[in-house]
Amino acid sequence: MKNSLCLIAFILLTSCNNQPTKEKKASATYFRNKPLESPIPYKSEIIEFINVRDSIVLQGTLTYPDKETNSFPVVVLMHGTGRHDRDYSVYGHKPFLVIADYLSRNGIAVLRYDKRGCGESGGNFDLATYDDFASDGWSAVQYLEDREDIDFHTIGIAGHSEGGSTGPMVEAKHELDFLILLGAPGLPYPKADSLYSSGMAKARGYSIEQIVRESMVNDSIIKLALEMELGQPLEDSIYNLVHRNRRDLSELKGLSGEELEEVIEWFYIEYYARPAFKEFWEGPSPEEYLKQVRCPVLSIGGTLDLNVPGAESVAAIDLALKEGGNTEVTSVLLPNLNHMLQPAKTGLPEEVDSIELTIEPDVLILIKDFILKQSNRNTPSGK
Predict the structure, then answer these.
(1) Beta strand pairing status for 56-65 and 109-113?
(2) What is the model's pTM?
């Protein structure tokens, strides 16, 4: 425990002592509902690629610099938990659009796509597992490798949250030039879930007694999800259990009517009644995949990330990568950032709805600098 705390303190100190200049931060600032800066100095294509293993077509957008060289580093963006389009739209924010715009203005190509069964992509989201989502990410990489008109000389993945679990699954099985983990899980899932539950409850002002009651309800939900077969009976059982105990669940605090129904559906049924939950709960822990990652890794987390949670996860990721023999690990824990890597006060998910800044500029700059560093290693001449 003492070593972990030292590591966290070191990461925080390092991040604070290497702040980008104000000028750089200003160029990386994006706000909700604000149009992208014109003119757009890069090319944008609607593309589709095939997951051959599952015989499904996924659709996305590829952006890349408008230059004569036609040779660029490229990153594939992988989403967090839930049904998401290529822009990763949440609470009016479009973080994947922002990342793509910023990177493509700075010499880096970006492929973002609709998650399987969402938007214009084929496939069945309800039956998808982590392995399926990882397979989709690898299919995107293969599409880029097969493009003959563009030389993508350096290819990597940037995954947020769930994407921070599926990204390492891709690298563990295949070979990437780099991997970026954003708000990614690093702890065994039972431990992470316990910290998540207690952290959210504390941030909402729950007492110790209330936190214990919430923990008992969560344990009952998990038991249902692991013991029952997937399908409507499981969804109904989870709904009834949650609704019956709604006063003991901090996620539902103060909600009623349609809003209550929507949160139960999105937060509990969509999460616990899908095959991905049982797969990651009973399957390999994040560290088992992280120890197999050999490419350079950038891991970024926030101290107010309650979903993962941030400090513990960044430390666990750093440790697992290095225990696996990876010597090219950059771990950064930034102060006062939430799970979406925005400046926050509480870290609670509902706070995102009141935050105008889509993503902390320092995060965009760190991502850009890391990718360009890997690109320069692959192209020593700088071409």
Answers:
(1) antiparallel
(2) 0.89
